[in-house]
Structure formats: structure tokens, C-alpha cells
Design a protein that fits this description.
Number of helices: 4
Radius of gyration: 23 Å
Number of strands: 7
Structural class: alpha+beta
Strand content: 25-35%
Order of helices and strands: HEHEEEEEEHH
Strand order of the largest sheet: 2-4-5-7-6
Low-confidence stretches: none
Mean pLDDT: 83
Distance between the termini: 70 Å
Helix content: 25-40%
Shape: elongated
Amino acid sequence: MNPTRKRRLTLVIVIAVAAALAIGLGVYALQQNMNYLFTPSQVQSGQATPYKTFRLGGMVKAGSIQRSKDSLEVTFTVVDASGAMPVEYTGILPDLFRDNQSVIATGHMDGARFVATEVLAKHDETYMPKELKDAMAKAHADSKVKEAVAQDKSP
């Protein structure tokens, strides 16, 4: 083989290996930072077990909010159409957090309870991403979310 062709072939192989390594590391890094959204019934059915951290979405069950007297620890229950999940959170909750309010909590499972590191409450704005709206409509078949989906589809 000609020495010039040999150098070119070596260079092409080195570039291809470096590109494959860079793509592989990029995909791995993105996988570690993804947060999937699950409802309480999906978590209870085992769909969230492969994920270390994920988002739990649903409605705060009326009367389930319990605040600690001497710390910022709050426990509450997130429900959907057919499931309920106890949530524990330490920190300051959003101003719009209350009973019968839609919430999304980011965290991990600790036994049968969800330990949240961040809690987001639904705000006044009517915009909601289509994926989240579809997931909430499916999970809350008899709630206000279904009415919002119907309003968005009307002309």
C-alpha cells in the first residue's frame, strides 16, 4: 500500500473513532439528565422503576398537606384518576401550592414514598405543552384539565 494512502486511511480511522466516542459520550450525558414525567398510577404500576430521578405529576389531594411545626418539611399526597402517591418535600413551596391544585414534583422514590427536591405548582397562564396536557388529561379524566383540552380543540 502506498504510504500516502496508508496515512490517509489512518487519519480517517482516527477521526471516525473520535467522532463515535464523542457521540457516545454525548448520548450518555443526555440520558443522565433526562427527567421523565409519570403519574402516581404509572409509578405504582412500576413504569418509573428504571429511573433514578423522575417527575411526578398530578393533583394535590384535598386535606393531605401536613407541615412540620419546627422545620420546612411538608408531606402531601399527589393523586390521579386511579392512584395516589405520598410525597415528602423540605423547602419553601410555591405560592400557588394548595389543595386540589396541579403539581409537578422532581425527585426519587424512597420505599413507597416520593422524596421531592423541587415542587412546581400550576400557574394562572393557560398555556401548557401538548405532551403534558395529554398526560394530565389521561390521568385526570374527570378534572378541569379535560375541560381545558376540550376548550383548546374548539374553534
